[in-house]
Give the backbone structure.
Amino acid sequence: MSDSSWTRVPPSGRDLVPGLLRSLDPLLRGWLPRQRWFAGKGLPVGRFRLAAATELVAPGGRLGPLGLLHVLVDVEQPGRPADCYQLLLGAHPLLPSALVRAALGPAVGGPYDSLTLYDAPHDPRLAALLLERLRTPGRTGRLRFTTEPSAEFPPGLAPRVSTAEQSNTSVVYGDAYILKLFRRVSPGGNPDLELSLALARAGSRRVAEPVAWFEALDTDGTEDGPGEPTTLGVLQRFLPGSADGWTLALASVAEDGDFRQEASALGRATAEVHGSLATALPVRELSGSALERIAAGMTHRLEETAAEVPAVRPYAGALRSAFDDLTKLGAGAGTGGAVTVQRIHGDLHLGQALRGADGEWVLIDFEGEPARPLAERRRPAPPVQDVAGMLRSFDYAAHHSANGPWADRHRDAYCSGYAEVSGTDPREQPVLIRAFETDKAVYEARYEARHRPAWLPIPLSALARLALAAPH
């Protein structure tokens, strides 16, 4: 299909807006809070604002009664900034039984009056249509679709929605590709696309390379606006037969097994990714004042967490020394040389690593911690931040068993593998590794206290250890 066939649909959501939001409002109030990726759970939903609406297929068009609508909607809730969510909605006069669980409900009024709206990625016909659109570069309204020149799209790729996602929605096409749809979006490029693309173009074998993506432009005119496009979805190579590190580590713990060879290989893969990112993207030295600001932010998070989680308070005084030592390092009073910062993964743990059928590790999901602002996730950071995240993940895996030494053995194996490739052993950076691991464990304690209280002993155990781990 040529791109010109897509220009027949309305070029923007302008004609759809007058009645669309009124018909969507009652449906979204019931449906959005039930979605795993909705960030404002537990808070009342205030006002909706339609940021954009693009009709990719009109009902009654080439798919018969079936329609496909792309929506960006701002959601206001008390006590938090407005969030923008990406919705892909199907429209059908009579919803098949297989899609009932994906339904928002029947629209009343507006351009989709009497049609039932539903979450389109769950409809194989519409998911296939989205892949068809991704393989065709060009624009539809404010949406821009881009394809890597080397991309190949085999025929007959049957779509299915992945059940593994938490903060996004992914559609797997056959055994060839996986499309990640970002649900909560922010203006600007998502680091999952930015970093994966940089690694792939640098020839890294440790990444599932992007083959196509689509974005929202900040203007609905014919020229791109001054702002950076907003990444909406990324189509990447799928890794059939792979297993994530978390599943493999838990199996090892359950069997009291030896996972050290795999942990060491994962350390080497992490160091390779850091090296490739340092080659492809800028690297700089962190100033003393910047390091002091990082330490101040960590101290603030500790104080907030101790105020909210009483179980953290007994350790707070000793843990504060980790961030005091980081401040001294920034001021030049501590040991160690200059701190180098670069682009990193940003949310590295065992679940973000896949071991392929060939035994090689690939890192995935480079978007960073979704709860953090996009600008913060794109900011260069010390590579040891990723290492600390992985060390905490080994600790989490070990606590699913009474096998206490498992975590120490595998944390050491991971660091040794990392040092083999990078030439820098994270264990020889005691101030940095303690500060970042402490900050991660503090975050975990707050998260578990809010969402999984039964898991709170896991980060508390780490905080008790880290409180005694002041470097000498």
Summary: Residues 239 and 400 are 27 Å apart (CA to CA). The first strand starts at residue 48 and ends at 57. The chain has a mean pLDDT of 90. The domain at 243-467 is CATH 3.90.1200.10 (Aminoglycoside 3'-phosphotransferase; Chain: A, domain 2).
